[in-house]
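Q: Give me a backbone?
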Amino acid sequence: MSALSATPVESPEPPPVGAGWIVALTLGVVAVFASWFGPLQILLPAQADLIAGPGGREGLLALVVGTGAAVALVANPLWGLASDRCRSRLGTRMPVVYAGTAVGVIGQVMLFTASTGPLTLAGWVLVQLGLNGPFAVLAALIADRVPVAQRGIVGSLFGVGQIVGVIAGTVVAESVGASAVGYLVLAGATPALLVAIVVADRASSATTGGVPASVPRDRVARGFRPTRDYAWAWLLRFLMNLTNAVLLLYLFFFLDEVVQADDVAGSVLIVTVITLVLSAVCAGLTGAVSDRFARRRVFAVAGALTTAGGLILLALATTMPVVLLAATILGLGWGLFIGVDMAIITSTLADGATSGTLLGVANIANSLPQVLAPALAAPLVLSAAGYPALYGVGAVIAVAAALCTLPLRSVR
């Protein structure tokens, strides 16, 4: 890695993207996140409970989730690098989508058959390893194809796709009664939804000679040059995703042990839908407004501080009405942040020729929190302080995220 450069290097602006391309990109994101968060929200906790039972389920879940996230840390930037270097008849980045999807589907089928901790761990590792391939490509396509003036709305819809994917995956898991059949449903839906971006990318590549629109031919894959602003934007994303991981990891157990919900899986679904529907609406509006006024930082700060408020309320919650109020606040906060997250990170890229690699490294900020969250959460939850301490620490992390916007110079 070279030393951090002070400012990004300007790349030629690609032409505006159309509604069909944006929809295709969003569907691809939905596919990946449904396959990640249906298991994370319901299927994996239920499987851990079935295999290890009370007293062992927390440890097994932490091991499976943490190991899978550790694999994702390495897989995403490597897939991004591979997509930067890929120049073939199958497309400039699409071979990574094909290979990664195949590996991910194999992992989903393995999870369907898993009846022991090691098999569950192996299946989840394959899901994380594989699906980080298409996710790395989907992020890189924004830098390739989308002009700066559209990155607020396209980036916000990238975030909305994540939200819809979380909801869809959770609905699938709940609809099959938290059973392993959910893995098979996701194994079929994932490649079906990713077909759209494959077709759209082929059409777009035909107009640029097969090379990503923002990458001059003589500068393809020439180096790795992160900027100082990129480092701060990475840290902002990391901290916000850490708050989200803290929230989600033991939500199933929190609603069971503290709130004592009658239907835990159903309560997880309700909280998830409230939080993420509000996030989606807020993110879409935020992206459009941030494009209109060319301002990103104010929305990131507002999102981080609102998230902190929601986590503080959740730390005090013992009943479902308070949990639902906290979920509402958290939804608004997360929507404000993801509405500008992708626009912020892409504005700090040093060079369009390495966008896949840089965005792959940026995506580590999505997966690293899943590695750290179990190490952070388990001791707090198992201590006398319990869940209030966990969500209080999450609020502090969100405030730290807001402070990361202060050093940004290339982002208004």
Observations:
- DSSP finds 13 helices and no strands in the chain.
- Confidence is low (pLDDT under 50) at residues 210-223.
- The CA atoms of residues 304 and 402 lie 5 Å apart.
